[in-house]
Amino acid sequence: MSRLQGKVVLVTGAARGQGRAHAVAFAREGADVVAVDIDSDTGGIGSVPYPTARAADLAETAAQVEALDRRIVARTADVRDGAALEAAVAEGLETFGRLDALVANAGVFSQAPFWEMGEQQFRDVLEVNLLGVWRSMKAVAPHMIEQRRGSMVLISSVNGVRGNAGAAHYAASKHGVLGLMRSAALELGPHGVRVNAICPGLVDTPMTNWPGVYDQMAGRPGGTRADFESSALHYGVLGGQGALAPEAVADAAVWLAADGASGVTGQAIPVDAGHLALPGYNPAPVQPAADRP
């Protein structure tokens, strides 16, 4: 039986990657979908070094949901714009009459040593990855409180529990998501609303498929997709698994939203092929200046 038959989910960042996987997975389990994402053709995020989603990507997500015989409201909305999110939620409620789950997935990534980042670069990541999650939760919370049920699934990262050299702003934003999740679980629990987070490891999405990440995975400039695939095999502990498919994260989100997780709230669930079980990162040793050749 479908675990989410008759339910309605809001997915942010739904146009591609993990967001599309969430929308399709929920639809496959019987849910109708409210899907939102940015349209880079009308306004992107200047400091993000890879192409962000376009309206055509969101239309493809809608087509895949409809192919599963589920209904979808797909609207352009930037999670930096609370009014746009509230309008999408209102349209979803008008169309479907209810809202049972949120997958706060929208996120961006960029790289630089923290002391070289401009303030706008730091703010862009926080605005999407942390404040965007808060705005999404804020848009749906009154309706879930009124119906005295609901499940919020926030997408954090393994970088929510450990640092990321070269992306301190990203790690800070994902740490913040976990603090927000734990606090919201306490506040919403008495209203019957559950709040949890997923901490994905390395996932194969547009966010990880650009030269900066290839260089990081290769450990040198000039990294390639082949370097990414080879290095990804060392990221987790499961033999033969490299970067995870987005569907692996979506499967966890479905479980957290369904009745099978009715007793689960305030938890951060790693979906990382065992990455967090590995020993910590050790940088190359640095010789004292006096000992260098």
UniProtKB/TrEMBL annotation:
PANTHER family in the record: DEHYDROGENASES, SHORT CHAIN (PTHR24321), ESTRADIOL 17-BETA-DEHYDROGENASE 8-RELATED (PTHR24321:SF8)
Xref: PROSITE patterns: ADH_SHORT
UniProt-listed SUPFAM superfamilies: NAD(P)-binding Rossmann-fold domains (SSF51735)
Gene3D superfamilies: NAD(P)-binding Rossmann-like Domain (3.40.50.720)
Keywords from the named record: NAD, Oxidoreductase
Family: Belongs to the short-chain dehydrogenases/reductases (SDR) family.
InterPro entries documented for this protein: KR_dom (IPR057326), NAD(P)-bd_dom_sf (IPR036291), Sc_DH/Rdtase_CS (IPR020904), SDR_fam (IPR002347), SDR_subfam_1 (IPR023985)
Protein name listed in UniProt: SDR family mycofactocin-dependent oxidoreductase
Residue ranges constituting the Ketoreductase domain according to the UniProt record: 7-201
Gene Ontology molecular function, alphabetical: oxidoreductase activity
